[in-house]
From TrEMBL:
One of the GO BP terms on file: purine nucleobase metabolic process
GO MF term (any one): FAD binding
Pfam family, one: FAD_binding_3
Metabolic or biological pathway, per its Swiss-Prot or TrEMBL entry: Purine metabolism; urate degradation
Cofactor: FAD
Protein name stated in the entry: FAD-dependent urate hydroxylase
Keyword Metal-binding included in the entry's annotation: no
Keywords, alphabetical: FAD, Flavoprotein, Oxidoreductase, Purine metabolism
Keyword Hydrolase on entry: no
Record-linked PANTHER family: PTHR46496, ZEAXANTHIN EPOXIDASE, CHLOROPLASTIC
Length: 385
């Protein structure tokens, strides 16, 4: 079977690896000339790690992952710890450690595992043509490629999604801006084995360890969309937004490299249940674009990849039937994750200040069990449980 995958992100490459392992002829087409990861790092929760383990990458992903043994929330103004607890109960429930990983390392690992020789760069997709026995991808350079299956893993701005749905759904602004990047680990900021989040005023500052003695950091600030984005002003802007916050936050701001820091206006897309059209299927952000508030966007894409491969391997009534069965297994699960992330986003970013304050009050009383229960609820139900 010949498979064309549009998009060389985490979901597309994971699907490519899974399908190659089944003996399919797989080619990935990516619109950019050079692949640069979007964002500095990603939280791979146990469900995402299990998917990579399934793809034969257990040792590689463990080497990329930071040692995250604990989790803590800290009052942003005073610097007092609101709650701190071990993540071991989550590990024991889920059967796998979580791994925060740098996106560049993850991207490189996936490209190597898939095979760079089968990735065509500089190939923007402009159209998809359905056929009775094949589907044809049409690229901006005039080239056409016919295949038995076409997978749209082309992200939140997916071209393939427009073909499947017949229209492009609007992206919904979630109400906040995120700055993220990598800095060297410094215990003056936070413990080296801990995911630490400073909270207050509907804002968040968070650090978590990744390989290479580095923290992945992010700053979240509720802001109107469309404001000026000038990299040279990032430190000054963050100093202003976090004026009066505790010393570790100020230290982090001074340590960031503006040239290596990303700024993103956070959006999602209302869940929809049409993921396939004939020999074409959606995967990852193309199918379920989410905010990062529960850390499940990349993990869900990897789940898609596993379920897609299983569906094509085990169903013999034809490609279209197998793709429909893939979608049936994934739509509800992915939609639930999008809506859970949206709900968490509203609580943490002050959409209703009273609700956010109630959450802060709860954190002072939290022993970790409620938070771990929430994280495990996101992990539970994955295809490799």
């Amino acid at each position: 079977m010949k498979v064309s995958i549009i998009g060389a992100g985490m979901g597309g490459l994971s699907a490519g690896i899974a399908l190659k392992r089944l003996g399919y002829e797989v080619k990935v087409f990516e619109k950019v000339e050079a692949i640069r990861p979007v964002g500095a790092a990603i939280s791979l929760w146990p469900n995402g790690v299990k998917c990579l383990n399934y793809l034969g990458l257990a040792e590689q992903v463990a080497a990329l992952g930071g040692r995250m043994d604990h989790m803590a929330y800290v009052d942003g103004a005073s610097g007092r710890t609101m709650t701190r607890f071990s993540l071991q109960p989550l590990v024991e429930q889920a059967g796998q450690r979580p791994y925060p990983v740098a996106r560049a390392g993850l991207q490189d690992m996936l490209m190597r595992a898939f095979g760079p020789e089968d990735i065509a760069l500089g190939m923007p997709l402009v159209g998809v043509e359905d056929g009775a026995s094949a589907v044809t991808a049409v690229f901006a350079n005039g080239q056409t490629v016919a295949s038995d299956v076409l997978i749209g893993a082309d992200g939140t701005h997916s071209v393939v999604r427009g073909h499947v749905l017949g229209h492009q759904p609007e992206r919904r602004y979630a109400g906040y801006v995120n700055w993220n990047g990598l800095v060297e680990i410094d215990t003056a900021i936070a413990p080296a084995d801990q995911w630490t989040t400073f909270v207050g005023e509907g804002k968040r500052v968070s650090v978590m360890p990744v390989a290479g003695n580095r923290f992945y950091f992010f700053f979240d600030v509720p802001l109107p969309k469309g404001q000026a984005n000038e990299r040279a002003t990032y430190k000054a802007i963050l100093r202003e937004h976090f004026r009066g916050w505790a010393a570790p936050v100020q230290t982090l701001i001074e340590r960031i490299d503006e040239n290596g820091t990303n700024r993103v206006e956070i959006h999602d897309i209302e869940p929809f249940d049409t993921w396939t059209r004939g020999r074409v299927a959606l995967l990852g952000d193309a199918a379920h674009s989410t905010t990062p508030d529960i850390g499940q966007g990349g993990c869900a894409a990897m789940e898609d990849a596993v379920v897609l491969a299983i569906a094509l391997q085990t169903n013999t009534l034809g490609v279209e039937d197998a793709l429909r069965r893939y979608a049936q297994r994934r739509v509800q699960r992915a939609s639930d994750l999008v809506l859970r992330a949206r709900k968490r986003c509203d609580v943490t970013h002050g959409k209703d200040p009273a609700v956010t304050q109630a959450w802060y009050d709860e954190l002072w009383q939290e022993d970790g069990s409620n938070i771990i229960r929430g994280i495990y609820a996101n992990v539970q139900g994955n295809p490799l449980d």
